[in-house]
């Protein structure tokens, strides 16, 4: 049995090659890999010895040869194939170990040039992988170090790799080639010939890995599955570990993502409760327990059967409070043993543990998507993600009445929440707590009225509250509705033709108003 090894990432390759050699498998390799194996005392024939042709063009050409591809592609069950190998003195290659030039890692580095990217486009590697994967019944092809142990176990036990495993390896190999080519296409079609950025790629190539099939989609008559990015961002929902509870549903996952994205945007202890993709209660506090208690008060009715997310460890006291209500999904960076013991009595509650992102310069390092994608009929809408963060320095006070320091903090809090509420969004807040949330209405006036009604049902007074509107007030009537409800300060983007009219109305009513300069439509 012959194994050809040619790897860029050499993780675990020496140990694997040594085990293959111990099983009597002959080793063939290229360039740097051959040198490494030789340094480790492993007998290894270089590809150049097999082909009788030296590596050339700075390594661009080394395995593109009939003596390599013939050994990979020949079907052992076809006499004519085997006769052709014999006639041309071609040995079969039964095991191929290849991982590709690090194109994705190269283009992800700051300062990567077009020339650097081009030199990291592998040619011979993908060609060999495709040959071996096509001939999977006779050749086992390994494209990742995580596959070494399983293949070695089968070889040790039976001297061969099972047909089931070889087929799975073939599928994984073709998936890897697809991912690789997609990355190249995305990169090259998004730059100009001089290497300057050209905007969105000329072709969008989604690269997602299935995590699990789901029982059904939004409704029982729809089928569904859950996928993650090929390289998921740290602290994103797809990295969650489920500690207990029923299998997550399509709607659970969608709502959980909305709750997690909102709660991890706060630096202080926070709790977010989501129902049908909208926050129905958001609050910050001295600790997780206070944050939860305040968030729940916003809308106890909607919180029933909701999704709850924390950005702090959940302890026994929080668990006892949460267990008093019906919860679908609970998320947090961690849980104390006492909390987990409490939740054991609620066996159906889906308890997820997700590590918070540690932060960094890029959206990915911050646990965020760089782009948002929406499927439409026979097409996609792609946009840069709404990752804008508002600070005090960004606010423009446009009224005679100046907001107090406390009001400014409430306005920033309300604005942060409004970003995660479906448009048209109106959010009343006070003292780090949502007091009323109006979401997803065709009219901004209706959203304001609904927020007031829900506050009333929860027994909350809107007197002295801060209000965020995710887009500008086109007329003064929207402002009048929130002020009539009790708001004393308002944050909105501004930018309407009637901004002057709305500002005059705020002055007339004696409330403070600030412009954010950005809007947060969320459809």
Number of helices: 19
With strands numbered from the N-terminus, the spatial order across the biggest sheet is 8-13-12-11-9-10
Backbone structural class: alpha/beta
**Record field, number of beta strands:** 21
Structure described in brief:
With 523 residues, the protein is of the alpha/beta class. It contains 19 helices and 21 strands. 38% of the residues are buried.
Structure, explained:
With 523 residues, this protein is of the alpha/beta class. The model has no long low-confidence stretch (mean pLDDT 93). A six-stranded mixed beta sheet has the order 8-13-12-11-9-10, with helices on both faces. Helix content is 37%, strand content 20%. The two termini are 58 Å apart. The protein contains 19 helices and 21 strands. Helix 12 runs parallel beside helix 14 (316-322), helix 14 runs parallel beside helix 15 and helix 18 runs parallel beside helix 19 (499-509).
Secondary structure blueprint with pairings:
Layout: E1 2-7, H1 13-22, E2 26-29, H2 31-39, E3 45-46, H3 47-51, H4 66-73, H5 79-87, E4 95-99, H6 103-108, H7 114-119, H8 124-134, E5 140-142, H9 148-158, H10 163-188, E6 208-214, E7 224-229, E8 241-244, H11 250-263, E9 270-275, E10 278-284, H12 288-298, H13 300-303, E11 306-310, H14 316-322, E12 327-332, H15 337-344, E13 350-353, E14 371-376, E15 379-384, E16 396-397, H16 405-418, E17 426-429, E18 434-438, H17 444-457, E19 465-469, H18 476-485, E20 487-492, H19 499-509, E21 512-515
Parallel strand pairs: 1-2, 1-4, 2-3, 4-5, 11-12, 12-13, 19-20, 20-21
Antiparallel strand pairs: 6-7, 8-13, 9-10, 9-11, 14-15, 16-21, 17-18, 17-19
Helix pairs in contact: 4-8, 8-10, 12-14, 14-15, 17-18, 18-19
């Amino acid at each position: 049995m012959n194994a050809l090894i040619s790897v860029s990432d050499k993780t675990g390759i020496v140990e694997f090659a040594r085990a293959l050699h111990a099983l009597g498998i002959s080793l063939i390799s290229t360039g740097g890999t051959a040198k490494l194996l030789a340094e480790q005392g492993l007998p290894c024939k270089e590809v150049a010895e097999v082909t009788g042709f030296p590596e050339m063009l700075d390594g661009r050409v080394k395995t593109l040869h009939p003596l390599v591809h013939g050994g990979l592609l020949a079907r052992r069950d076809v006499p004519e194939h085997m006769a052709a190998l014999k006639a041309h003195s071609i040995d079969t290659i039964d095991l191929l170990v290849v991982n590709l030039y690090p194109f994705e890692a190269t283009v992800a580095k700051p300062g990567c040039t077009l020339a650097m990217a081009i030199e990291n486009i592998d040619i011979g590697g993908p060609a060999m992988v495709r040959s071996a994967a096509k001939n999977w019944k006779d050749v086992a092809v390994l494209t990742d170090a995580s596959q070494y142990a399983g293949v070695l176990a089968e070889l040790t036990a039976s001297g061969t790799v099972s047909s089931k495993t070889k087929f799975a390896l073939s599928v994984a190999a073709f998936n890897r080639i697809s991912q690789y080519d997609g990355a190249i296409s995305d990169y090259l079609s998004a730059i100009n010939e001089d290497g300057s950025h050209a905007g969105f790629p000329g072709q969008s190539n989604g690269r997602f890995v299935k995590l699990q099939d789901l029982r059904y989609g939004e409704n029982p008559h729809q089928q569904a599955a859950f996928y993650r990015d090929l390289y998921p961002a740290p602290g994103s929902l797809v990295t969650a570990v489920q500690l207990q509870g029923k299998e997550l549903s399509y709607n659970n996952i969608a709502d959980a993502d909305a709750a997690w994205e909102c709660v991890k945007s706060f630096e202080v202890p926070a709790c977010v409760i989501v129902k049908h993709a909208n926050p129905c209660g958001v609050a910050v506090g001295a600790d997780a327990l206070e944050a939860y208690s305040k968030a729940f008060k916003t809308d106890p009715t909607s919180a029933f059967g909701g999704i709850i997310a924390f950005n702090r460890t959940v302890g026994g006291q929080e668990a006892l409070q949460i267990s008093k209500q019906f919860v679908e999904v609970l998320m947090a960076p961690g849980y104390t043993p006492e909390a987990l013991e409490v939740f054991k009595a609620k066996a159906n509650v889906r308890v997820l543990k997700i590590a918070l992102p540690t932060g960094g310069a890029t959206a990915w390092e911050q646990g965020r998507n760089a782009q948002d994608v929406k499927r439409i009929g026979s097409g996609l809408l792609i946009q840069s993600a709404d990752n804008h963060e508002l600070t005090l320095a960004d606010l423009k006070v446009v009224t005679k009445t100046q907001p107090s320091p406390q009001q400014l903090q409430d306005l920033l809090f309300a604005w942060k929440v409004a970003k995660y509420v479906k448009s048209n969004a109106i959010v009343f807040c006070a003292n780090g707590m949502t007091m009323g949330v109006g979401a997803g209405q065709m009219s901004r006036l209706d959203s304001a009225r609904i927020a007031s009604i829900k506050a009333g049902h929860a027994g909350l007074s809107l007197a002295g509250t801060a209000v965020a509107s995710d887009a500008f007030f086109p007329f003064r009537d929207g402002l009048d509705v929130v002020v009539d409800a009790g708001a004393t300060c308002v944050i909105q983007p501004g930018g309407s033709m009637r901004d002057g009219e709305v500002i005059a109305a705020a002055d007339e009513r004696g409330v403070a108003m600030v412009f954010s300069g950005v809007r947060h439509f969320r459809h």
